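DATA SHEET
Item: assembly model
Revision: 1
Owner: S.N.
Input lines:
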Amino acid sequence: MISGGIELIDVSKRYSAEQDSGVCALTGINLSIAAGEFVGIVGMNGSGKTTLARLLNGLILPTNGRVLVNNMDTRHRRCRREIRRLVGMVFQNPDNQLVSPVVEEEIAFGPENLNLPPQEVSRRVEEVLKITGLGEIRYHAPHLLSGGQKQRVAVASALAMQPDYLVLDEPTSMLDQSCRRELINHLHLLNQKYGITIILISHCMEDLAGADRLIVLHEGCIVGDGAPWEIFARESPLADIDIKPPDIVRLLQILQQMGFSLDAKVTTLEQMVNVLWQ
Amino acid sequence: MAVIDIKNLSYIYGPGTPYEKKALEDISFSVEKGELLGIVGSNGSGKSTLIQHFNGLLSPTSGSISVLGFDARDKKYRDQLWQKVGLVFQFPEQQLFEASVFAELAYGLKNMGLKHDEIEYRVQEALESVGLAAKQVLDSSPLCLSGGMRRRAAVACILAMKPEILVMDEPTAGLDPEGCAQIWGTIKKIHKEQGTTVIMVSHYINELVLLADRIMVLENGVMEAWGPPRKVLGGEDMLNIDVLLPDYLKLLYELKKKGAKINTGMLTLEEAAGEIARILRRSE
């Protein structure tokens, strides 16, 4: 087996203490995410997206099956500390995960809890501030920042742990259009320049249009897995699930219906501009 | 007739302190009676600061503001303005505090000095207009409602006061598509049936351009554009602040920047597709 990557083998999760009752949030999930991928996860409310995200770093454990992160099983208690360092999490509402009164202390919080020497902690804080471009607001109070800035502080705090994987659960749902684009561009940068694997859950298809791969969840099962253009083009999985393809794909579909032959793989604004303006 | 008239308004937070921040700079415009005005801008552009001037919650650092004929800077008119200008804040469901939905809606009405019969009638009417079944929700605690219903109950609190001007700050933020549609439906109904002047702050520009008579674009406290949506989008004003636009409009702007002779004054995705088709045909 390859050493890098996250592997879910026949994973089910049931939220109930008793057998045979309660809600099955996920059933029979088999999924492997390779190191360096940018994966998008879509699905309606209640489709199991958040459950899946929380399984990835052992916040919750599968009822059946196994979750392996770099070949370490999340069920093994002695692996969990390392797994949680490797898999950084960013949630929907940054207010829920920011704890410190100053941005740079917030970023230092994780590394400090790894019992790293102070020099190493400050080195990491400097590095992360540089990567995320938050240097200007390092002495600010997180709760007084804008939503987009807060979300980037949350990403920065996760990065300070030097994770291999970053799992983001609807990080853009509270952001406006421009902050949303900024955060997504930033994630692509982290993915391409620093090789961090990104697992991004979002309701907003524009966020996911640039991903390498999209996974569609429906009622606890994976019903679609492919490149964004394949997922958006194929009517079946998304039609049931009531997810509108991104603007650009809908635009492309209208133009195709009008008889223009355009590259069917286009999903992002940048690609569309290039196709139309050669 | 102008219901709000603002001239050279500026607002500075914490003047004279290290945190001094100019939030609004030299804003002038007027809002007509019965109009639906959309205010668009990114986070920190000054939208929320501006709307708090409409009922005297904030008083301008310089410049003048007249609302329904009252000088909003003058504290003696504030009681009247608070009743006539209904302000729905962002995430209004967070400010619900009564034990039942009825008590919540009645709170503002009691403070207006209305009689019990009138209060009951208005509560029913307001719940109906936001699409909540009065019978089901009247006695339940607001905290037992779903997020979308709670938002609608909070909006109903303001509607029950029958404001002449309804101001809403991001009323659809954080709601799922269904919840958004319900809120938009309510706003349309209030605006059409009761002729209420509505001012909407939103960053969902694609919804706003379809409904608004005029839109204002704020950026860093400065008014960058003002006018009917088609004219604002078709003009040059938004070329540098197109980050606010949905992708289908941003695409038109990107093509325009590259030199395409394209009309960017499109409101819907279908219109935008039509315009691109026109350009493609011409280049063939």
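QC remark: The longest strand of chain A covers residues 23-33.
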